[in-house]
Amino acid sequence: MATVTAVPGSKIRGGSFLIEERAPEEVFTPEDFSEQHLLIAQTAEEFANKEIVPNIENMEHKNFAIVRELVKKAGELGLSGVDVPEQYGGMEMDKVTSAIIADRIAKYGGFSTTWGAHTCIGTLPIVYFGTEEQKKKYLPGLASGETVGAYALSESSSGSDALNCRTQAKLSADGKHYLLNGEKMWITNAGFADLFIVFAKVSGDKFTAFIIERGFPGFSVGAEEHKMGIRGSSTCPLILNDCQVPVGNVLGEIGKGHHIAFNVLNVGRFKLGAGCVGSARNCIESAIAYAKQRKAFGKVIADFGLIREKIANMAAGIFTGEAMAYRTVGMMDAAIAQLGEQHEDMAQVRKVIDEYAVECSILKVWGSEFIDYVVDESVQIYGGYGFVEEYPAERNYRDVRVNRIFEGTNEINRLLITGFLLKRAMSGQLPLMAAIKKLMDEVLSGTSDEVEERLLAQERKLVATAKKIGLFAAGIATQKYMQAIQDQQEIMGAIANMTIETYAMESAVLRAQKLAAQHGEAGCAHSIAMARVYISGAMEKIESASRMVIAACAEGDMLRSQLAILRRLCKYEPFNTVALRQAIAQKVIETGKYVVA
Q: Is the model's pTM score more than 0.90?
């Protein structure tokens, strides 16, 4: 079993980045990959290049026989059983490895969707909640790829509102089966999957999960959906007409299906975030290649400043996304390692992952919106050819849009981020309110921190400033609305945006600081430049969001005084991002791809 070295000291609490300062050695970054991690990354990359990429056109035309064959080949390489315990035929590796595979396999959205649904939401409910008998029966086939899994939660009337499902389950007269009636919508892998995790209400209100095999009586699959993107994946409705499910196929407890539905999504979210970063890495490579050969006004467009600006922003985002993704899964692995002998207890592992629900939602939202930026700018770089199916920019543009809907919409995830933090603060699990009060006292007294003499001191100062701005705005909002803040979705969303950008900023700076400590600032100037470009843009977003929150919560003299405090907090010398982007672009254009150093 691959493991990550535990972070020194006590376990890092989820969401604590807002009120605690992390040291570079406390975070896991791609530079910390072990030899085994690098080998798995190479295996996944080679599989993607040799097996997935040559079959893209066939999969685009819904040749699902090839899709199934690729799922099986991935299983033979161990890529599909990474989260499955060894005693059930899996590899039982760490979460860093899970993220690496999701990252490197993301060469084509159609297959990434198929593989992600199979290995994550189609398999993990049984890993985490299955009985011993269920695990022995189903997990070996899922791990090997012989069996393809799917997950059926959504309905036409209950997408984000999952608990409002209409599918019903009634115990048969002989007590041997549950009879399920209803319809599930937009089910990934439905056209060819063998096994389905399906949710229904027992006795009218007890939300419950069931394991359904394709051949069960009363189970059928509707017609393929004709989708905007990810056309190489299968998406169909499920029709349950007195579907006979043995009582032994109830997954977890009757009435506790929400634990399964929501817990497993955290893994899906961090994998989706990692996959978006991997996809961005592929997109920047094709965009650079096109920009280096396309000429206009007598020179290649890669020499134009506004094209170089786009490429530099892509690179800075990839650097930041990698830092966020592997920092998050590194914390998970460190916490799992601290479980000691309990590290094989899936219930305990699940609790560890749930601890980082905020960070998982951050990765999902940030990753899906960053890849949207990347593909949009890729189309712009390709110009007219970006709108033509013959070129990869067009397909990438279509394929990534669904990521903002998958694994809980970004709107729902934003509400989860703020709501989860406030819930922890109210319960005392996270001393957020104490931090807000301390900050309020500081800003009213006019005290401020001086820039320390250390590596990337100015950058760390900006991260600290971002945290203060976020806490200041959150404090104003909670003072005004108290518990009713849950009804103020725009404010909740703005606080989430500040939280997301703060986590991204700090992750990028910690990674750059860690590199600088190892190689010197001169030796990693490229990485520092990418971090600086990212945090410059993030500070603008944080300041804008905080102004919106303050203006929504105060007026008159109070508004003016709070804006004056915000201006004081936001007072800093900007980086020369034009020069920084020029240097970043020069490096990646020369190399032909995203690079760290």
A: yes
